[in-house]
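Q: I'm writing a short explainer about Carbohydrate ABC transporter permease for a general audience and would like to include a description of its predicted shape. Could you first generate the structure from this sequence?
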Amino acid sequence: MSTVPRIGRPSLSAALSTFVAFALKASLWLWVVFNLAMLVWIFLNSVKSSRDIFAHPLGLPTTWHWDNFWTALTTSGLGVAALNTVVLVAVSVAVIMALSVPAAYALARLGGRSAGPITSLFSAGMSVPFQAFAVPMVLISVGLSRFMVEWITGAWDPRITVAIFYVALSLPFSVFVLVGYFRSLPSELEEAGALDGAGSFRTFLSIMVPLAKSGITTVTVLNVLGLWNETMIVLLLVPNQGMQTLNVALLNFYSDMQYTSDWGGLFAGIVIVVAPMVILYFWVGRRVVSGMTEGIGK
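A: Of course. Here's the predicted structure. Afterward I'll give you a sentence or two in plain language.
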């Protein structure tokens, strides 16, 4: 007599897991739709007049005021601030990558007893909150500026101090992620390079750096995104409005709104600040996500 296998009902835990997964996906999609709707809303209001914004806050512009962007760039100082931001971010990220890539390679591949503790120190640096650095940064900035003016150069640009702190605060994360990438690369490649007569420096430049290109790209993009959106350090260290960056200039523009009520120009300023990073993330976002999972997971 043959027996018929019983088909059991799905367990309660499986049904609960399915529901939780569905709820999480639905929540994420709602969050994505909300953010996209906010971007569209900000853009539409950036080409409206102030009266049109309050009369039709959710509608299309009755007249497209593209001149709001020119007003934001010229009258609010966003044009100069954009140039300051581009230069500051480009220089800072270049120095960060020039320091973090060889440091991560040395910690990951060259070994030594101190490699593990030093890597742990870099990872511990990410856990210190920014507020702990605020007062020391101001004191160091004042002391450094006074020392350079009185003893070395006779003048000092506070944006150099900002770049120094950008580099110092970004190095722990950059080194930590890149160490994971270099550790994931097979050691046979270095051995093959040594058999061909390549030294350590040539092996690093010609073999390991090209292989870690995805990780280096990921860290570069994340640093650009982070420094572009940084506001507090510039607020603390750069009192001159002509030297400040986009986010601080936008805050100043918002403060001036009590006198001008140029809401269209303010929304145009927000677009000028946000649009470059949104375009950058849409361009390389998938590569950044895959790069993060590869680097940290190994």
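A: For your explainer, you could say: The chain has a mean pLDDT of 83.
Q: Perfect, that's easy to follow.
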